[in-house]
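INFO batch 0412 | record 1 of 1 | parsing
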Amino acid sequence: MAPTLRDNPLLRASEVAHILHVHKSTIRRWAKQGLIPYTSSPTGVLLFPIPTFRAWLRKTYGPEAALLLDEERKSESSRGA
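INFO prediction complete | emitting tokens
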């Protein structure tokens, strides 16, 4: 079974892109430009800690924007992920 948002405190660029409805290359570009906080794995994979991402959503898009992450997590639960 693949890890889910509920299980992992880190999001990949593709997961952040899905939540924000943009392409993952956009997320990578934003990260490299310093527009969105991230960390890197030892192999260079961009990772986005959920608490930091949630705070960034609130700061960037407003308090209700963090609900996007919560909705994605609920949707994942209902799909049985």
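INFO post-check: Residues 1-5 have pLDDT under 50 and may be disordered.
INFO record closed
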